[in-house]
Amino acid sequence: MFYWVVKAILSPFLHVIFRPWAEGVENVPKEGPVILAGNHLSFADHFFGALFLPRKVISLGKAEYFTGRGLKGMISRAFFSGVGTVPIDRSGGKASEAALRTGLRILGEGNVLGIYPEGTRSHDGRLYKGKTGVARLALESRAPVIPWAMVSTFEMMPPGRLIPRLGIRPGVRFGKPLDFSRYYGMEEDRLVLRAVTDEIMYALMELSGQEYVDKYAASAKAEAAQAAKEARKAARR
């Protein structure tokens, strides 16, 4: 209920101020389990990604969004609960398996699960290599996978920017369902998981128009941060 209250309050404001657009909404099934596999460009994706869908989108978010203290922590919990985020431990290992089981439970209940295969926001607007968790979810749940491409949210609100830029119309494109039935029963095969994930990322690249980088986003982000640090040191010499 809280999700729909938040959406009812925010939707008119977002439509009037930012004039967002959407394509391919009809590709999302009106009922039954669905995986929305999207690129992740900006914090603004949480606002615009599901704006045009008549169904609730449940996403998996890091537990830290729900554990903060004081007023800031309370606001964070309220916001992420309001946009349909379920907290998970993203520390890896057994936590990754627990996150997978949470995703399967959500799909098993006939819901729409939103997931960002890159694992984190792009720091430069490019599309990065997907993690294979999305493939395991697709093959184990046998739910249809819809590519879910955010457009222009990076330009409107890049990482680190607190206030969105006006004059940039954010959009979202929903692609045709991807069929992975030929791989059912092969969810333990790493090569199959990689192939399924790469097919999803290719579909996202075509929908979003982004440049693709065959590297994980977290690694690329760390390398960029290190390069910036070294550049600052060199400038002070």
UniProtKB/TrEMBL annotation:
GO molecular function list: acyltransferase activity
Pfam family, one: Acyltransferase
Top-level lineage group: Bacteria
Residue ranges of every copy of the Phospholipid/glycerol acyltransferase domain listed in the record: 34-153
Keyword terms: Acyltransferase, Transferase
InterPro entries: Plipid/glycerol_acylTrfase
PANTHER family according to UniProt: 1-ACYL-SN-GLYCEROL-3-PHOSPHATE ACYLTRANSFERASE
Protein name per Swiss-Prot or TrEMBL: Lysophospholipid acyltransferase family protein
